[in-house]
Amino acid sequence: MALDDIDLEFVPLGDTGLRTSELQFGTWRFGKETDAGDVEIDRARATELLDGYEAAGGRFIDTADVYGGGDAEAWIGEWLADRDRERFTVASKIYWQTRDGDPNSKGTNRKNLRHRIDAILERLGTDYVDVLYLHRWDDDTPTRETMRTLSGLVDDGRVHYLGASTLRPNAWKVARANELARREGWEPFTVTQPRYNLVDREIEDDYLEACRAYGLAVCPWSPLGQGFLTGKYDREDGLTGDSLVAESGRFEEAYLTETNFDVHDDLDAVAREVDATPAQVALAWLSARDGVTAPIVGARTTDQLEENLAAAELDLADDQLRRLAEAKPGPYAGL
Fold it and tell me: What count of other Cβ atoms lies within 10 Å of the Cβ of residue 142?
């Protein structure tokens, strides 16, 4: 299936009133340097991938001001310059330190937020971003200061909607911030971006419930478990242990476990039944989950992009969805 044979549909972005592509395109590898000093995705490849996503009907581009040291936003901006900006929804993120030796260039204090949004807009070559995420929660800045400043960015038109990324253990902080915002008449968070996939199921506790209660869109990152769910890792060669070490940064300990390979066995079985790849089935399962709005997919090549986006054409049977949901033991089984 060629990219222009895929027809991504639009789905509601929570209670925002916007509609988003059912699979969003993530650009975190744009300009990213490898340990060997190479660039994972250079400018030319980034343009090819954006072209491919557009050809498949995709219109939601997710980035951050630290991706590629700002190159990701600059390349997206160059690409958008030849198109109708209004036809695309662009999200970016703020949190991580951007200037060595400057402690105020990190977090969500007023000074940093106001400076960083201007730099984001300049690189993107646009007057606004559709969604501005907090890349992490800043416990050093009062919630009142952060929400009031973010609301001001919405009021002056530089931002349309506010999002919270990677805050799974802190669902209560998002809820508290939204209650404060509503009490003060400020803009609340309306979009979230947690990690979620077949083996990373931790948001199936109060996080998803809180998102449903507040009408928040849920746009998961790492829908393929950092590549584990693509099937490229072998059980015999890759098995390292029995415990999932979430957020450890150690891929082997976090993913190459007996439990996760058992999940992969079920994933492979369903993939054979529907004549699809494990990656496509994993994405189709996630898209069908109650409370999920639109997963964020990435790719290094147009072939990978084509494979991932083709998951939108795949419909799994109820029994297959249930089997995959129950493949993970513990409190997540059956959810």
Answer: 12
Q: CB–CB of 207/222 below 8 Å?
A: no
- How many residues are listed for the chain in this entry? 335
**Positive or negative CA dihedral for 148, 151, 156, 159?**
positive
Residue range of the domain that includes 49: 10-230+292-315
Lowest mean pLDDT among 9-13, 99-103, 175-179: 99-103
**pLDDT, tens only, 188-247:** 999 999 999 999 999 998 899 889 989 999 999 999 999 999 998 888 776 654 434 444
| Cβ atoms within 10 Å of 67's Cβ, excluding its own | 23
Output the CA angle 235-322-62, nearest 5 degrees. 75
Of 316, 329, 212, 205, nearest in space to 270 by CA: 316
Give me the catalytic one of 53, 67, 196, 214: 67
Active site residue 67: yes
Sequence-separated (6 or more) residues with CB below 8 Å from residue 262: 327
Residue 286 domain-assigned (yes or no): no
Q: What CATH number has the domain bearing residue 133?
A: 3.20.20.100
